[in-house]
Specification:
This protein is α/β, with parallel strands linked by helices. It has one domain: Alpha/Beta hydrolase fold, catalytic domain (Rossmann fold). It has 6 helices and 11 strands. The chain has helices spanning 32-35, 37-42, 83-108, 122-131, 177-187, 207-220; strands at residues 10-11, 20-25, 49-52, 58-59, 67-68, 74-75, 78-79, 115-120, 140-144, 163-168, 193-198. It has a 7-stranded mixed sheet, with helices on both faces. The protein has a two-stranded antiparallel ribbon with strand order 4-5. It has a two-stranded antiparallel ribbon with strand order 6-7. Helix 5 (177-187) links the parallel strand 10 and strand 11. Helix 3 packs across helix 4. It is globular and about 45 Å long. The chain starts with 9 loop residues before the first strand and ends with a helix.
Amino acid sequence: MDLQRLDGPRINPLSGTTKQLVIILHGYGADGADLIPLGRQWQQLLPDAEFIAPNAPQFCQNPPMGYQWFPLNITMQGVVSTPKERWDGAQAVTPSLNAFIDAELARTGLEASNLALVGFSQGAMMALHTGLRRTPAPASIVSFSGMLLGPDHLDTITAKPPVFLAHGSVDEIVPFEAMALSKQALTSLNIEVTDYVEQGVGHGIDGEATWLAGEFLATNFI
């Protein structure tokens, strides 16, 4: 299979020594530069972490800017792509994302227990979709304004890292209800889930969610 090579902005560890790796996946129509500032906000909590925010492998189809992990139909009513379309899209790009993760772990000489995946929106879908099927499992997964794809494919989930879910209560793109549905599915598999409601927030990440997610990452690294 011809895999698309991924890359994007990076932040070196504050301590000067990479002992942890945090891979941050951007949302639809954005790029790695959009979310790499999260790494700067988390450096004090994670001084030994290297942060990487790869650009997704496809140019965004709609709107014509940024990148996409897979095609996604978004209207004024929010995401209207079918569950099957989202599942198939995530399945198609997962090999490229896994290859990137594997290469970064090999480059740094780190184990899966030193890896965390973070995503926003479509990137959160990919963080959950990929991270929950990696062996060995990552240390943790953080999902901002995302959703668990393929609730009828729970039998394909092989990893059970702790998961942090944060979602705006008035999200106009990915419905707020997606967080409860994702939590229900994950807890049914005995996956530890921490959730946080961003009250009055739309499709975005507020300061409290950022801080709590950083604490969650720090707590779950060995």
